[in-house]
Amino acid sequence: MHIDFANLIHSIGDAVVISDAKGIIIYWNHASERIFGFSEKEALGSTMDLIVPDRLRQRHNNGYEHSMQTGTTQYGDKLLTVPALHKSGRPLSIAFTVSMIFDDNHKAVAVAAVIRDDTERFNEQRALKKRIAELEAQLQ
Q1: Which of 36, 15, 138 lies closest to 90, judged by CA?
Q2: H/E/C letters for each residue in the chain?
Q3: What is the pLDDT of residues 49-97, one digit of tens each?
Q4: How far is CA 65 from CA 11, 50, 76, 109, in A?
Q5: How crowded is residue 91: how many other Cβ atoms within 10 Å of its Cβ?
Q6: What contacts 32, CB < 8 A, 6 or more positions away?
Q7: Residue 104 CA to chain centroid, in angstroms?
Q8: Distance CA 61, CA 96 (A)
């Protein structure tokens, strides 16, 4: 059996975003368009600043640059949850994993991220925490 991985990644329900060593987006699948609102044409050639909120850009860019220089990431096996931005300016909460991509000389050349829109779950959890705090305050 042959699996067409390019077709699979293009059609998968989670966003798949790949950016090169300079942080330029070089791959943006259909789910990326659905989640973030930017077309493939708009995203390709842009940086991740497209979806990273202003207040987090410096930290993101510093971490990205460090990962490219060292070929390592502390997040390779962790599910990360962070704020992001939709094209409309609407805030998102995303959950994602990352994987470093290396050339034949084991030099880091790109990063692939598999991203899920976690906004609904995040908002539900925040509402539950608020309700618990309100109920605890009533008991005191």
Answers
A1: 36
A2: CCCCHHHHHHHCCCEEEEEECCCEEEEECHHHHHHHCCCHHHHCCCEHHHCCCHHHHHHHHHHHHHHHHHCCCCCCCCCEEEEEECCCCCEEEEEEEEEEEECCCCCEEEEEEEEEECHHHHHHHHHHHHHHHHHHHHHC
A3: 999 999 999 999 999 999 999 988 877 778 888 999 999 999 999 999 9
A4: 29, 17, 15, 11
A5: 12
A6: 15, 16, 17, 38, 40, 43, 115
A7: 26
A8: 17
What digits encode the pLDDT tens for the residues 2-40? 888 888 888 899 999 999 999 999 999 999 999 999 999
**Hey, what amino acid is at 67?**
S
Partners of residue 113 on adjacent β-strands: 17, 98
Q: Report the C-alpha gap between 114 and 79 in whole angstroms.
A: 10
pTM strictly above 0.90: no
Q: Give yes or no for a contact between 38 and 48, defined as CB atoms under 8 angstroms apart.
A: no
The sign of the torsion formed by the CA atoms of 72, 10, 115, 94 equals positive
